[in-house]
Amino acid sequence: MQIDAVDQRIIALLVADARASYAEIGSRVSLSAPAVKRRVDRLRATGVIRGFTAVVDPAAVGWTTEAFVELFCAGRTTPAQIGAVARRNPEVVGAYTVSGEADALVHLRAADMSHLEQALERLRAEPFVTSTRSAIVLSRLVESPGVGPSTR
């Protein structure tokens, strides 16, 4: 599917505010509301836009402690095995296979250090995890809600 500059701008505007009306978006990209709706429908139908979601502030729900954990895995551990473990743990915000020494990088959020330690121990208890290396987040410097050009 071809995505033109207008589609990219629409995507960026939806990433910034998925509740924006088609009319609001249209005024920003010089299209009518029905034209924006047709483009969004096409982007959804082709899987470019997979859905709309609420972004929750972790601090507002009390999950202010976070870490990035490198997983080192045994033998022929597959990405599917790592993904299954990640999905079973509510503290996992993201999980990625990576290049370098580690096999995967897992982003955890928890209420406090004790909660983080419990989540980390659950990861370490997986039979294919041979070791981990963690980095605790001290402060967030930049966070982007999605892909595409900035809407600022």
In short:
This protein is an alpha+beta fold and 152 residues long.
Written overview of the protein:
The protein is elongated and about 55 Å long. The model has no long low-confidence stretch (mean pLDDT 92). The protein contains five helices and four strands. The protein has a four-stranded antiparallel sheet, with helices on one face. A hairpin with a 6-residue loop joins strand 2 (92-97) and strand 3 (104-110). It is 36% helix and 20% strand. It is of the alpha+beta class and 152 residues long. Pfam families: AsnC_trans_reg (PF01037), HTH_AsnC-type (PF13404).
- The number of helical runs is 5
Q: End-to-end span in angstroms?
A: 26 Å
Content-based structural category: alpha+beta
Q: How many strand units?
A: 4
The share of residues in helices is: 25-40%
Biggest sheet, strands in spatial order? Answer: 2-3-1-4
CATH topology tier name of the largest domain: Alpha-Beta Plaits
CATH superfamily membership of the largest domain, which one?
Answer: Lrp/AsnC effector binding domain/regulation of amino acid metabolism (RAM) domain
Q: Give the biggest sheet.
A: 4 strands, antiparallel
CATH first level of the largest domain: Alpha Beta
The global form is elongated
The number of domains is 2
Share of β-strand residues: 15-25%
- The string of secondary-structure elements, in order, is HHHEHEEHE
Low-confidence stretches: none
Radius of gyration: 19 Å
Mean pLDDT: 92
GO molecular function, one term: sequence-specific DNA binding
Keywords: DNA-binding, Transcription, Transcription regulation
GO cellular component, one term: cytosol
Protein name: AsnC family transcriptional regulator
